[in-house]
Each structure stands twice: as structure tokens, then as C-alpha cells.
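hey m, so remember when u said the C-alpha cells were messed up on ur end? i reran from scratch. heres the input so u can diff it against urs
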Amino acid sequence: MPSYAFTSFIDLTENVCSRLLIFCNDLSSLKQIHSSLTASDIIIRNSHLGAQIIIKYDKFGDHNSARSVFDTVYGDKPNSFLCNTMIRAYANDGCHNETLELYSLMRKTGISPNNYTFPFVLKACASKSLIMEGRTVHGNVIRTGFDLDLYVEAKLIDMYAKCGQTDESFKIFDKMPMRDLVCWTDMITAYEQAEQPYKALLLFQKMQVEGVLADAVTIVSVASAVGQLGHTMKAKIVHAYAICNGFLEGVSVWNAIIAMYAKCGNVSKARLVFDLMNERDGISWNGMLSGYSQNGQASEALLLFEEMIDSGCKPNPVTVLIMVSACAYLGSQHLGRKLHRFMIDNKIKIDATLRNALVDMYAKCGDLNTATRMFNDIRPRERDTTSWNVLISGYGMHGHGKEALNLLTNATGRD
């Protein structure tokens, strides 16, 4: 018989439970394992088992049970491993307040954060653009000596960028003794999202000079930067680069290339790329529809919309928002009503943005009665500046100056 190096019954139980957790695939079974470990006090003695249970609870979306495990084990054996596990779970699920609260508790109880802590705390700061909290964490990074850790530096770049501080991001990036692809891509993306396309493209060129090979994520950001510039020749170069390096295997790059050509005004090239796709998702269809609509080709957008429905791809609120704009451009009451009926029949949620777009569409199509009725159906406290502007513009466009002025008076006096 094989010999196992279990030194005690507890050792045996811990190993069995660890194996059970690996193969646990449902919440009910997890709760049974958790209950057994709690009853035998094994969970208090073994923080790694506690961490495993936290990870599993997080996988099943049960944050309260995960935190209960943490509080039980941490109260008896506080350690950075357990803190990092819970912080990671919170940060990855978008619970920024809980992430920062736990980080604060960690420091108050004398547990030193490390390079497994800071990236997720910085992610939480970035998710809500919490610049003051981010700066405080940055100070802690420096004080604890993790400011030269590559992964922490990458998250600092990302945090400052998402807080709108691209200059701060670049200061960190520029001082890095070593930069991997993630750091280059984060900085390029930071400039692209801050609508600084020239800086994004210059950095992409520098990256190539230094011999760092791009990936699909980099190309998506570069394509977006070229689209912001509206430079067709650069668009063709990026497209060729994507082909030569085999980046067109993923749908995201195809979508980025379509959007890039459309923003450059080269709709025919965008459509060619679209037609060559073997697989399309909702973003692919929306990107091409948007390209037609934004370039004044509303009729083509409507034809493509019909193709989309026939293909079995279900339109979403973004899709119908694009199509509402196309109908408004054409000024067709018939098509506008047909689209509105489609939205109702397919139970597409009409939020404030879409409702304002519908009011604008009916107003531009000359159906001021429907536009006014939809406007009046909006609760007064839910009417925003756009709601008033589209109706005022509609009245003014069709020669109803008096009604437009009355609306303007109501709008300015509503507060």
C-alpha cells in the first residue's frame, strides 16, 4: 500500500478538505464544507483553507459568506495572505469601498501590504477615479519600497490615467528601469482615452523602436487613436500591421479596425472589413451601423439593421439608439414609428438617453405632438438639459418660435 505523510488526523482532514474544495462546483456543497471546518475549528488553524473558501464563495458571488470566513480566521490569525485574498475578491467584483475599508483595517492591525496588495487597492481607486485615495496609496507604495515592482508600477500608471492624470502616469512610466508590454499598452491606452492621439501614436512608435512587440490589446488602442485623428493613411498602416502580425484572429481587433475606418470617413473600407469577418458580435454590428449613421448614410444603416435582425443577432439599447439617430437624419415619421414599435415589441429598455433621442427623432420628423407627449411622460425630476433642448430645438426647427420660447422660459425657471 502507498505511504502518505499525514502526521495526524487533523493533517489528514485538512488535506481532504483542500481536495474537496478544488472540486466543489456549487454553493450548497461549499457551505457544507465550510460548516464542517468551522465545527472542527480547522478553519481557524489553517488560514490557507480559509483563503480557499473565500475564493470559492467569491466565485459563487456570495460576498457576505466570504467576509464571514475572513472575519473568523483573521480575528484569530491575522496575516497578509488572507487580507490579500479578500481584497482581491472585493476589487475584482467592483466593491471599491469594501476594498479600501479592508486595506485600512490591514494597516491598522499592523499587517504590512505588499506587491500582492497594492495592485488591487489601486484597481479599486481607479474604478471610481478616487484620485486622493490613489495618491495616499501611492505614498504607501513608496514608503514600503514597492515602487519599483513592475506590476505595482503598471497599476499606478493605470490608476492615474483613469483618474484623468496622464502626466502623472507618464512620470511613473518614464522613470521605470524596465517596461513590459502591459506598461507600454497601459500608457498608450491612457493617452488614447484622454483623447491625446498624437502622444499615443508617438509612444507606439517608440515601443517598436525599443523592440517591444505589440499585442491585440495594444492594436485596439492604437486603432482608436488613429480614428480620433481621422487619418486614413495611418488607418491603412495599422490595418496592415494587424494583418501581418496575426492580430485579426480576435473579434475585438476587427471591431476596432471597423470603428477606425468609420471615424476616418472611409465607410466603404469599414464595410469591406465587416464583410470579411467570419464571426460578428453585437459590437461589430453596432460599429458598422454607427459608421453609416455618423457619416450621413442613414439609408445604408437601415438596410444593415434589417440584415442584423435576419442574422439572429439581437439588437440592444445601443443599437436602437444608433437607429433612432438614423431615422431622425432621414426625417421619416413612418420609419421612426416602426423602429419605436420594434423597441416596444422586443422589450428593449428605454432609459433617459434613449427617451431623449426618441423625442428628438419625433421632433425632427415633424411629429411634434408625439414628441411633446413623450416629453410630458418624463417625470419632471428626471428631465435633464437634453430633454428640454431637443424639444425646444424641434419647435424652433418647424417655425413654432412662440412655443419654443415658452418652453425655454419653463426650462430656465424649473429650478
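this time it looks ok to me. The longest helix spans residues 9-22. if urs says something different then somethings off w ur setup not the seq
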